[in-house]
Predict the 3D structure of the following.
Amino acid sequence: MDEEFKEIRATVADLRIDAVAAVGYGISRSRMVEEVKASNVFINGAVAKKPAQEVSVGAEINFGKRPKVVLYEVNGTTKKGRIGIVLRRYF
């Protein structure tokens, strides 16, 4: 039972739910902040409490009726101090 997914490689300033989920779903961070405040975003089945909530490797993010996004890897920091991440968006 292999699930299909799209791998997304990106950098974020912080491992905050708003930043990570915005990259995973391809929307702006400010819109994701609004969605978190409206209790539309879930981390591992629980409602995300605030936009600054930290996520860790293996976190499963759900947003609306869209497919889940999983924080698969954290790859360290760039020269500018951003954090490299690998996300998997499932179909």
Residues 10 and 53 are 19 Å apart (CA to CA). The first helix runs from residue 17 to 25.
